[in-house]
Amino acid sequence: MSHWGPLRGSLLFTRRPQLDLFGAGILLVLCILWGIQQVTIKLALEGISPVMQGGLRSVIAVALLYFWMRAKSIPVFGTDGAWRPGMVAGMLFAVEFALIYWGLAFTSASRMIVFIYLAPFVVAAGIHVIVPEERLRGLQFLGMALAFAGVVFVFQDRGDSVLSERAWIGDLMGIGGAVFWGATTLVIRATRMVRIEPSRALFYQLLVSALLLPIISMLLGEPGVISVTPMVIGSMAFQGVVVAFASYLAWFWLLAHYPVPQLSSFTFMAPLFGVAAGVIVLNEPFSTGLLVGGGLVASGIYVVNRRQLPAMAASD
User: Fold this and answer.
1) pLDDT confidence bin for 8, thresholds 50/70/90
2) Residue 203 is assigned to a structural domain of this protein
């Protein structure tokens, strides 16, 4: 991330009409990290309550981000008023992760991640109103449908027989988390937050969630930190340092550079990596649906991100 400083005056706020190879490469790494994260949350549940996990993750990340911004001489609040929509985005962000972390106490990581990635549909619906020039076209809607069908196909024959009778509660929380994730993305894209340093946009969200999630945890009566083991410490370090700090900083940089619907559609790759992580780390049964679903997802991503034909572009 350290190379962003010199780009402030040139590339930082340059919008690009299509997702290029550089952006796609960053997204691929992010999808791998986000897919793995669901597994690390499950692993850490043996030592830390779910919502408290989310709070501690934000505390770790916001502390790192604060010192990173100070080192780069980036103002935390500034004088442009971006902190106001930043606080709104932060509250949405906090509710999103309260639902996701709490939901994982009821349902499996595999089910949770597929519901979370309904978020691109929220973004695609809202972006029509907020940024008309970035709306999806007919074939791109088909691409999103293919990508989502691929994700559903991966999970349809996983044979998950260890779910509790209350798994539907976690499923609904996952859907709620997707709605709040999409709403957060739209707030960032529709306000002056899209024109500020990515680190500032992230700081506001992490700060609010670091304050709210521990309070929510206490209100829920969670026991908090139960046991500190190397596995729990490693899981929290991954969530706080790698995901909430580094990967989200990269994500907000991408939001400032590329069309939101294309970015959102690409994130359908993350559930596939989540399935792979579940097989490797949690010994979940491997499904051949992963291969077929992966092909559908790849096809959907291609359709959504392919350049428009000149005649189609002229009709806009």
Assistant:
1) very low
2) yes
